[in-house]
Amino acid sequence: MKDELHDMTYSIARDTQEVLDRLGVDPALYTGGTLKSFSPVTGEQTAALPEHDAAAVAAAVGRAAEAFRAWREVPAPRRGELVRLLGEELRAAKTDLGRLVSIEAGKSPSEGLGEVQEMIDICDFAVGLSRQLYGLTIATERPGHRMMETWHPLGVVGVISAFNFPVAVWSWNTALALVCGDPVVWKPSEKTPLTALASQAILNRALARFGDAPEGLSQVLIGGREVGEALVDDPRVALVSATGSTRMGRQVGPKVAARFGRSILELGGNNAGIVTPSADLDMALRAIAFGAMGTAGQRCTTMRRLFVHDSVYDQIVPRLIKAYASVSIGNPLTTQALVGPLVDRAAFDAMQAALEAAKAAGGTVHGGERVTDVAPDAAFYARPALVEMPDQTGPVLEETFAPILYVMRYSDFAQVIEQHNAVGAGLSSSIFTLDLREAEAFLSASGSDCGIANVNIGTSGAEIGGAFGGEKETGGGRESGSDAWKGYMRRATNTINYSRALPLAQGVVFDI
Ligand code: NAD
């Protein structure tokens, strides 16, 4: 599996720069700065970006606040035209942006392109939405009155995003925010700043074609946690949409709440699947393999726990172990391997620590070792690990952001639902069953407690049409489809009296 990375003429930095050139990113934005950017594909440095400081954050928020005053007056369908143009520009840039996602986040080509497709899909959704920002008309108890609700633009939206969906999360927020009348200030992950610069360059082209959008409608802030903190603390940021670890959410959530700001928190997951006696095992096997090993286990919706009924355990688990032993692992830029790199050494170390803890708790580990023959030493590729656990204890209760699947037996349906829900996170879940009663029970009020509950598909790979997000320590936020747009607008209830009298609600009398 030696490849062009071992060819002395290949340079990932040059490859990156060529992609950035084609995407129209100004080299001044990624050269000579203090934030070093690395590709997990080879572990090598690709760029050095100038960073923003607290004053620059304040200035950016100021520009966005000014832009809000103008943008909120633009009719929503006209705002939708900007997002339509963004969708066109994304279509034109899909190949290059997808490759940049692979370079920066280590995703396979298909997943890199899939992430850009998700951006295009949410643009299409938002364009339609720009003509559907409906409020209700509500029956009033007072004669000669009309009551209705109106949705207004909210204000500046601060977006903080994680490394593993470096561009899709921005687009979920930005496409909705723009049609809802809100400017966006984006603090991408410090591990994936280049895809952010590229996304902004693509939006800049849409803005140029649009013509009369205000300055500061969409801005990118480069830097680490401190830059995110400055954004979170600025009272002019009406909504903070923050995607990342539960640890980050514990810091961001209370700060925004303390100033009565609004937040959408999209945090960690500890997602489980249940394989029941009636499951289509061939289908379950494929769904579990993608859900647990895809994106090298670095999706918020990655399947991390699997409960298998005693009666089918010996039919499916040995096959899964075989799939883990044979799955292709390799450089996502030059091979069609299904599993790419972990993002960095810290991710690999966390994976190894979790596997040690699992062994100490009585687990039997299959796989999990470092794979060294696909890339230089600075990159971290690992064979996904399947761990047979006697119980749901120790590391099984936490999200380790790596490809580890803990497998446990169960015998009683009611008990497995209890166990399924007995972790902090509440993002995604799935059941494999052909039994209607089990399927419906899993989706019912006393079934899965997650924001996403699936039947006969895996935990990962959501479509943009549904609202995305999870409960409990996943933060409760909802993004993307359905009525998630309401989070980006403020609702006013309006009552109009067109009579000549002034009847008070609840029959209250106050005659002067
Ligand atoms: P992370 O929490 O380390 O960082 C996420 C972002 O938060 C980065 O931009 C970081 O700079 C910023 N940040 C960190 N601390 C901050 C603070 N105190 N104030 C303001 N900003 C701060 O996460 P990561 O390692 O980049 O991503 C992996 C995590 O993200 C996993 O836990 C994964 O489950 C989660 N995730 C969740 C979703 C979701 O939709 N629920 C989607 C993708 C990733």
UniProtKB/TrEMBL annotation:
Active site: E266
Gene3D superfamilies: Aldehyde Dehydrogenase, Chain A, domain 1, Aldehyde Dehydrogenase, Chain A, domain 2
Keywords assigned: NAD, Oxidoreductase
Pfam families: Aldedh
Keyword Amino-acid biosynthesis found: no
An MF annotation (GO) of this entry: aldehyde dehydrogenase (NAD+) activity
EC number: 1.2.1.3
Family matches, as SUPFAM superfamilies: ALDH-like
Record-annotated Aldehyde dehydrogenase domain positions: 34-491
PANTHER family named in the record: ALPHA-AMINOADIPIC SEMIALDEHYDE DEHYDROGENASE (PTHR43521)
Family from the record: Belongs to the aldehyde dehydrogenase family.
SUBUNIT field: Homotetramer.
Name of the molecule in the record: aldehyde dehydrogenase (NAD(+))
Gene source species: Paracoccus chinensis
